[in-house]
Amino acid sequence: MNSYHDPELDDILHEDDLRHIAATLSSAQAPEPPLDDAFRTGLRRQLMKEAWSMSEGRESWWRRVFAPPGLAWAGSAAGLLLIAAVVVWVGAQPPGVNTIEVHGNVDGNRNVALQQPILVSFNQPMDHSSTERAVQIMPATTVTFSWAANTLAVQPASGNLAPNTQYRVTIGPGAKTASGKQLSSKQTITFVTQPPATPAPTPTPRATPSNALSEKSLTSLSGTTALRGQWSADSSTFYLIDGSGALKVVPASGSGITTIAGDGVTALSISPAGDRLAYIREGKIEVLTFASGQTEEIAPTPTPQLLGWAKDRLLWAAADGIYGADADGSSQQLRALPRAGDVTVVSIAPDGARAAYQTADNLLFVLNLASGSSVQVGQANATFAGWSPAGGQLMYVTDDHTVVADTQGNTQATLARGDASWSPQDAILLGGDTDLYQVRPDGSNLTKLGSGSYHTPVWAPNGTAFAFARGGSMWTGVAPPLPPQPTTLDQATTIVNAFMKARLDGDSDNAGTYLDDNGKKAYGSAGMSLIVTGDPKFTRFYILTQEITATEPDTAVFVVRLVLTRDKIDVSDYEETLTLVRDPSGRQLLIDQASAGSRHDLGKGAEVVSVDVELDSVAVTFDSDLDPGTVTDGVYIADSKGKRVDAGVTYANRTVTLSGLGLKAGGQYRLVVLTSVRDVLGQNVAAEYDLDFLGPAEKKHGNKKDVVSVSPEPAL
Amino acid sequence: MSDPSREDERELVALAKRDPRQFGALYDRHFQQIYRFVYSRVREQTAAEDVTSEVFMKALKAMPRYQDTGRPFAAWLYQIAVNAIADRYRTLRPTQTLDDFHDLSVGGPALEDVAAQRDELRRIWAMVEALPHQQRTALVLKFQEDLKIEDIAVAMGKSAGAIKLLIHRGVTRLRDDAASLRPVE
Fold it and tell me: A336, A369, A392 — which closes off a domain?
C-alpha cells in the first residue's frame, strides 16, 4: 500500500500517514450486495412503462387508476382486480407496422403478489373480442376481462391468484388489432406467485422516550461506579454491596433502606428459592434465613471469594477450587481448579453446574463441576458478563461486542458491547455511558430504551424492573416488554427456508449446517440429494404444509415441494418431508429426518399448492378453479386405518375446506385427492394425490409455552 | 483523444433525452453501481431497492432537462442518490456492522499480513461511519466508488475545492482517531 498514489490527492495529502489512511481506504473492495434480479427487471419494466407514458405525453393509465380517487374505487372493488397482464405495442413503429411485441409486466417475475394489480398498456387499439378469445391461462382459471382505452385487464373471477403457482398467460395468434392485423405468433407470459399470506409479523415497538422508564435514584453507592448486588426473588428489594463494603437492603420503593452489615462484605448470593441470603464478610460466609432472621456462619479454608447456589445447596469459590456446604455443616471440595493459584473464579452459574474462571493471561474458561472439564470461551481478552437465567448459556464481552455463547463456547449471537444482564424472560439489557438497549439473546428486537448513563444494569426477576448505576448512585427503572418471541413454528419455517435456499444456491456447506447427524445421514442415503442437479433444473421451492407435532422436544414436520423447470416452464415437482427437532441445548432446531417422494409431471390437471392443517379443519388450496361438483367426494381425510374421517366440505376460491374433523394430536392421517376432481376446463387430476400428516400438537401462531409472559407491574 | 466509452455514453444520453424509451440502456449501464452505492449507505435490501427505484425514476423524469456538462452521466445519478439517501435517512444512520461489506482484496502480502490488513481496514471503515455526513459521503465516493474529485463535486453539489477539503478533513480525522494505524514500512 506504500505505492499508493493518486495525483488528485497530492496537493491535500502531504503526510505519509495521511496517504497511508487513503491507501487503506482505497484498498477496500465492496463485494456485490444482495440483489433480487426480479427487482432489477421489475424496476426496468416500471421505468419503461413510465417512459412510454412520457413519450405519449400523458399520464399513464395505472397512475390515473391508482391515484387517490382511483384507489378509492379500487378499494371498493377490493378483491376483484387481479391479473395477468399483457402489454402489446408495435415497437417504436407507427400503427399498422408489421412487428408486434408482447410484454407482460410480470413476465419472468417469481414473487407476484396474489392480489397485485398489473400494469397494462397498448400503443394502438385492439379488437376486444378477438383479443379476449385469444387469451388462455394455465392453470385453469375462470377470468373476466375489462378494457381501459388500449389496456386489457384479465382478472381471476375469484379475486386473486393461486399461491405458489407458475402461471402461463398466452396470447394466441387470433388476437387482432383494431385495424384487423393478427398477431404473427402466440406470445406467452410466465410468472410465479407468492406463498399464501401469513399473519403479519409483530411490529417492533418504537424506542421508548427516556423519561418513560420511571427512573429514580435510590441510594448512594459510596464511592463506586458499578452496581454489585442482587434482587430478591419477588423483585421487591435489592441487596446492595456499596463502595464501602456495606450490605444494604434497598426496597424498590426507595424508602426504609436498612443495613445488614456495615463493612467488609465482598460477595453475596440469594438462594434460587429466595429464602436465604449468603454473603462473605471478612473471609467468612454468613447465611441469613429471611423467615427466621437467623444467621449461620461458615468459616471455610481457604478463604471464600464468591458465592452461588445449586438449588438449595450453598456453593463457594476459593483460590483452589469450588466447594459445597453439606447439611451437617461440613463442606467439601466439589472440583479443584485447573492451574490453581493462576486462575480466578468470576462467577458460579445460576444452576450451580458450572463456574466461569479467568486466567492470569486474561482467557475465559467454563468449568463443568460434574466432569471437571474446562472449555475456553472466546478469544483473548474475553471478559465474563453474565449467565442466562438457567445457566445454559453465558455472555462475555470483547473489545467490540457482547457475545452470547453456549457453555461449550459456541457463539450463539453477537450483540453490541455493553454492561449486560439477562432476564428470566429472555431479554438482555445492554447499558453503558450513553445508551440503554434491550435485545433478545439471538440479537433480534433490538430496542433503545433510553439515552444516558446506565452502568451495570441488573434485571429484577419480574423482567420489568431493573437497577443500574449512574453517577455514583443506585437507580431503578422499568423497561417495556419486548414483543413475543417467534413461535417454534416460525423458527422452524425460518430454518427450512434458509436450508432450502442454500440448496437452491448449490451451497452444500451452508445447507449442511441445518442438519443434525441423522439429517446428514438421510441426505447421504439413496434417493436423496442435498444438491439437486440435472435437467430439468431445480428452480424454486415452497412449503406445502407445516405443523408442530410434538413439544418435548419441540418437533415440527414440513412438507416442501421442489419444482423442476425446463426452458422457464415448470415441468415436474416432488416433495420432501422434513422433520425438525430442537437440539438438546434447547436453542436450535435442526433437520433430523428427511424423505423424498417421487417426481410427478405438472400441467396435467389441478395441483394442490397449499395445505393448512388445524385440529378441527384442513384447508386444501389448488392451483386451478375446480368444478365444485367434483369436490365433495374427491377430497377427504383418512385416518391411520384408511377410514374416511367425517367432515363438512366447502369450496371457495380454489380452496377446499374440510371442517369438523376433530383430529387427534399426533394421530396419523392422510389427505387424499382423487382423480375424480376436475378443473373448470373439465380436466381431471392426473393421478391420486396423497399427503400424510400428523394431528398437530398446537395451534399455529397462537401463544405457546415459548411466548414471553411478563409480570404486569414491577414491584417499584 | 476522446474516450470511446464516454462517446458511447454521450450518444446514449442524447438518445434518452430525445426519447425517454431509450433510457433503458442507461439504466442497464449504471444500475449496478448505483444500487451498490445505495446499499453501502443504507445496508438494508428493501431500503436500497426503494432508494434505487427513486433515483432512476427521478432521473428518467428529469432526462429532458439533463445538461451534459462533460462529466460522466453517473455523477448525475450519484447526485440524485446522495440527495435521496439524505432525504430518507436525515435522522437515521446505518447501524449494521461493516465487517461483511468492506472486504480487503490484498494482492501480494504474505498470509500473516493479510489478517492484520483486513483488521485495519475494518477498523478504519468503521471510523468512516462515525465521520460527519458530508465527510463520510465524500470519502465513500472517492475511495469506495472511485470517483474523480470533479465528479464527486457534481454528485454532492459542491466545488472541487470543497470536496478536497472534506476529504482532507476526513482523512486527517481518521488519522487522529486511529492512533494505532501507522504506515507499513
Answer: A336
Instruction: Determine the pLDDT at residue A117.
Output: 54
Write down the pLDDT at residue A634: 93
Every domain of chain B and the residues it spans: 4-88, 111-177
Asked whether residue A611 is assigned to any structural domain, the reply reads yes
- Give the minimum alpha-carbon distance from A269 to chain B in angstroms, rounded to a whole number: 37
| pLDDT of A4 strictly over 50 | yes
Q: Extract the C-alpha cell encoding A249.
A: 437492603
C-alpha cell at B91: 435522522
How do residues A317-348 score in pLDDT, each as one tens digit? 999 999 999 888 889 999 998 876 688 999 99
Residues A520 and A588 in one domain: yes
* CATH 1.25.40.20 corresponds to the domain B111-177: no
Write the residue in B28, B102, B171 that is nearest to A21 by C-beta: B171
Place of cell 391411520: A640
Instruction: With cut-offs at 50, 70 and 90, classify the pLDDT of residue A460.
Output: very high
The CATH topology of domain B4-88 is Rna Polymerase Sigma Factor; Chain: A (1.10.1740)
- pLDDT for position A138: 86
A149: confidence class by pLDDT, cuts 50, 70, 90: low
Contact B20 A50 (CB under 8 A): yes
Interface contact A47-B48, CB threshold 8 A: no
- Note whether B139 and B171 are within 8 A (CB): yes
Across B57-69, average pLDDT: 88
- Complex-level ipTM beyond the 0.90 threshold: no
Q: At a CB cut-off of 8 Å and minimum separation 6, what does A29 contact?
A: B103, B104, B105
8 Å CB contact between B95 and B47: no
CA quadruple A664, A665, A668, A669: dihedral, nearest 10: 60
Cell 460522466 belongs to which residue?
Answer: B72
Torsion sign over Cα A8, A14, A18, A21: positive
Q: Which of A26, A27, A49 to mutate to test the interface with B (most CBs of B within 10 A)?
A: A27
How far, in Å, CA of A53 to CA of A89, rounded? Answer: 13
